[in-house]
Amino acid sequence: MSTDSHDYFFSLAAAMPELLSGDEVFTCHLRAEDSSFVRFNRGRINQAGDVRQLQLDVDLIRGRRHAVGQVALSGDRSTDWPRLQELMGDLRQLAAASPEDPFLTYNTDVAASGEHRRACSLPSAGEALDSVHDGPSVGDLVGVYAAGGIQRGFASSLGQRNWHDSRSYNFDWSLFDERGRAVKASYAGFEWSSATMRERLAASMEDLRVLAQPARVLQPGKYRVFLAPAALHELLSLLSWGGFGLRGRMTRVSPLMRLHDGTAELATAVELTDEIAAGAAPRFEASGFPRPERVPLISAGHAASCLVSPRSALEYGVETNGAGDDEAPVAVDLAPGTLDADTIARELHRGLIVSNLWYLNFSDRVACRTTGMTRFATLWVEDGRVCGPVDPMRFDDSVYRVLGDRLVGLTRQREWIMDPSSYDWRSTRTARLPGALVDDFALTL
What we know:
Blueprint: H1 2-15, E1 25-41, E2 44-62, E3 65-73, H2 77-97, E4 114-118, H3 125-133, E5 140-156, E6 161-176, E7 182-189, H4 194-211, E8 221-227, H5 229-239, H6 246-250, H7 257-261, E9 272-274, E10 295-299, E11 302-303, H8 310-316, E12 331-334, H9 344-348, E13 351-364, E14 369-382, E15 385-389, E16 394-398, H10 399-405, E17 407-410, E18 415-418, E19 430-433, E20 436-443
Parallel strand pairs: 4-6, 8-13, 12-19
Antiparallel strand pairs: 1-2, 1-5, 2-3, 5-6, 6-7, 8-20, 9-10, 9-12, 10-11, 13-14, 14-15, 14-16, 17-20, 18-19
Helix pairs in contact: 3-4
């Protein structure tokens, strides 16, 4: 489908200028995917199928007035062209009745055209399923396997043309025991390995066996903890709510305001970037502005660049770096450290392995203080050995401590984490993260 959608999209874009009137301009953004989904329940295939879809978002512009609409495409010109004609007529009426938009902006640099395709070693559906069902029974496994191509395209009546085609996989699952206790894990990326998939599944099954032991009840206090990549991802996802964008900084609502002001810092090991070239998101945003291959967000523990949407760039008189309207990173990348993930229990010595954090929010946004719950496999380690599970607890601590003066180190090994959301479309947001060893992590309930 990726080749067909590419050619079809650009053939439509080439014909669309004939639908314009006077000094009208259009930009259009294509979303397309060809994905396979397999849903598991109790370790068995519950549902399997393929999704093929195309949608065109059109912005019709005249002066500072504009209107945006969408049309689902079938891939058949005889069906889609009348729909486009009708959409353009509707948008023309809407734009004429709309007020001027003072922050309307779209890319006028045709030189920003380009194409990017990311190859991926995807398994066949049978190979992926064999990785789950080969070997010991996985018992009560619930999850979703999603894989395939995601395409994005941009075109304008000014002549700009952009294309993005990325293929990836994401298997997100939970294992349950007979008492309802669960382990959550995932395997995602661009280069599938059946051996790695089996290792991840075996590790989940081992964690589930540990959960069968009597749970330890901890008193509130400060503990040495290891935050697995999935737990660290939850923390960084919360920071992305306005933490890295120019608008949040200029309006002073960013939870990282003290970092931006230079009155607080993180550990020098914290090197955080929006590594767009390595992820699954396109290298252009919906109105055609290009994205650089990487945007440094935190460098050696200090604030670096901001993510700047086109509208914020116009409002504050700076250059955009192609961020979306939410100014959140799309390919979070935290540099690795020196710790070995395989020996983390020994490094921890006495404390907690936290596989997941849940229900996060800010308890003090100004101080970048976050709160949430441990969930799924939270394990107690004594004398460098995993001893058993710990009942869920609430944490409440500042990122300036967790990734600052209390950060012991980060692991050399990193994991790909992909947003499993597939409402309407598979998400293109990714993260590549190590685990983090932290001292004096505050558990409050």
